[in-house]
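We treat protein structure as text, and this decision shapes the records that our systems exchange. The tokens are whole numbers drawn from a learned vocabulary of local backbone shapes. One such record is reproduced below, unchanged from the form in which we store it:
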Amino acid sequence: MQTDARAALEAWQASRPANVYDALPTLARGLQAHAGTDVAASLEPRLHALGADVAQVVDPAAALQEQARDYPRLSGSEIEFHPAHDEAGRAVWRHGGVGASAFEQAAQMILLSYAGEAGQGCPFTCTAGLVRALREHGSDELRARFLPPLLETDYEAAHRGAQFLTEVQGGSDVGANETAAIADGDAWRLHGEKWFCSVADADQFVVTARPRGASDGTAGLGCFLVPRRVDGAPNGFRIRKLKDKLGTRLLATAEIEFDGALAYPIGALEDGFRIAVGSVLNTSRWLNACGSAGLMWRAWLEASSFARHRTAFGRPIADFALVRDTLDAIEAEAQAAQASTLALTALVDRLDRDPGDDEARGLHRFLVNANKFVTSRAATEVVHRAIETLGGNGTIEDFSPLPRLYRDAIVFESWEGTHNVLVEQVRRDAARFELVPLVLADVRSRLDAPVLDELERSTKRALDDPVAFRDLLVQLMRAYQASYVEDVVAV
């Protein structure tokens, strides 16, 4: 005999959307606000198609792999995955997001992250970064050879990209990297070890290395493209081990040694660090924030729908003031993250159309780092709140995706720069390029609030105090988000 409670549980499970794009009308409205009505309308058919694939293919594939505890495995120099991994990959890659416009890439990443990282978000992001680096800095020969397979929408024929920058002694101190590059005719040979290599199954790697005789620090680093295979054989590298991570477990992350790997410079050698940061890392930081926004929207959908179906003390728990307050806070954070991230996307789009736009370049320099800091930190807290809304059920791995999303969110926080590293970068940039007045002038163009004057004075005074600046940066980003979202509440 089925109880009313069991029927309500099944109704909640059946209420999950068949199309993520349809379930998030706020995304369509955000695109209209930031990209314009015509651009948003042109993207809608493709985003609607992806929304169905994420809900019906990618998310079930991620759940299946997690429930089976069937994670990537190392077999020689190759990575083996559960068959559902490739099924999800085909569903993602056929929509061509890695080579799309900035607004389409951002929207696709938000929709994709409904399923968490799912073994697909990081390959999507890293491939997009490599595509951007080749388009902006690659020689004609390099682009002709390596871009077409990266842009391929047939999953079996497509190449995935990866970025291997971190070394065991370096971490965020990239200038301490020791991987060496030795000239070999028109190409180079790389020797050394990379410590944190996500998308270890990728077909093309972006690797930083120091040409023999180059200076110390970041100024001496070159940026290289390393194909996985040369003439069908592994290209001078060895995977030492796969990392056993807290989250993003469906993604293969490894330690990799290079021993004579054939490599090709992307751009001029002396511009290597600038290219690695400007084209590759900044793309990842931007799309990481899109992913955090997607995680938050999934948390809100799960928690709000559960609260409508779950009854306690004779009424839906959504009727209780504290639950409503929690749900409002989750939604406000998701709205805020989406608003600031689509604003950043608009800056990426502006710079794609006009690289000489000084205002866009300054705002982008600030926002790409500050936004990743605040959105990744908020995503973990938001998913945590959603878990609490489900009570004890929220901690059960096969009850909802929230435990998986929580683990993924924690990893998102560390990807492409820890909080402290990003805050320090913003602080140095703010002092060097006088970014605080520029950012607040942009905020004032949309939001008239007297508190902004004091915030500007306090933030400028804190430029020599990293701890104080970190706290004020959060307030500055709140003002930035509030200028785009009128109903953001203090949380």
Summary: The chain has a mean pLDDT of 95. The CA atoms of residues 224 and 265 lie 4 Å apart. The two ends are 43 Å apart (CA to CA).
